[in-house]
Amino acid sequence: MVSAWASQAGFVAFVALVGMQRLWELKKSRRHELAILKARGREHAPGQMAVMRALHGAWLIAMVVEVLCLHRPFHAAIALFATMVFAVGQALRIAAMRALGNRWTVTIMTLPGVPAVQQGIFRWLRHPNYLGVALEIFALPLVHGAWLTSVGFTLANAALLRARILAEEKALTVDSNYDTLLVQRPRFLPKLYG
């Protein structure tokens, strides 16, 4: 049996690793953004970035505070399920980054006249990255029973994603062949038939 202190320490370390991953991704995104702007690309809905950074930062802090201050218990079965869901989210995000290559950014960026990406995971989904983020935000707090963080930030993220997806799809429709190429593909859940 794992002691409360050990499980909490392990959870805080896990969250810290996710936080470092997010910082690394922001740095990588910034390099790609500068290259896209240099190639005459455009940024869309820049005001959303401050909200997204605040949401993700608060999410990382909130789950640690909830676990430590509200003494959330560790349940191995729930932790295993949540870790598996989190891993699926990570896999979706990594697949999206690989498919987009140097065009992957945290901000909404387009290159006018350049076709929308349709290879890799984008053959089945329009927004695998956003689905991955949603799964991560839901699952990571549940690894140590922080259900308030899971529910609250899942709802907040859903509101943010709605605005981001609308802005992204509008930008891609104006600047690429997105409307004719990808609009028939499902946003989040792949069709398992026809």
Q: If you compute it from the alpha carbons, what radius of gyration comes out, rounded to the nearest whole angstrom?
A: 18 Å
Low-confidence stretches: none
Instruction: Classify the secondary structure makeup into a structural class.
Output: mainly alpha
CATH topology: Four Helix Bundle (Hemerythrin (Met), subunit A)
**Approximate strand percentage:** under 5%
How many individual domains? 1
Shape field: elongated
Classified by CATH, the class is Mainly Alpha
Sequence of strands across the biggest β-sheet: 1-2
Q: What series of H and E elements makes up the topology?
A: HEHHEHHH
| Total beta-strand segments | 2
Largest sheet: 2 strands, antiparallel
Shape-level CATH architecture = Up-down Bundle
Supply the number of helical segments.
Answer: 6
Lay out the secondary structure.
Elements: H1 4-38, E1 42-44, H2 47-69, H3 76-100, E2 108-110, H4 128-142, H5 147-175, H6 178-181
Antiparallel strand pairs: 1-2
Task: Describe the protein's architecture and organization.
- By secondary structure, this protein is mainly alpha-helical.
- The protein has a single domain, classed as Four Helix Bundle (Hemerythrin (Met), subunit A) (Up-down Bundle).
- It is built from 6 helices and 2 strands, in the order αβααβααα.
Task: List descriptors.
194 residues, mainly alpha, Four Helix Bundle (Hemerythrin (Met), subunit A)
Provide a concise account of the structure shown:
By secondary structure, the protein is mainly α.
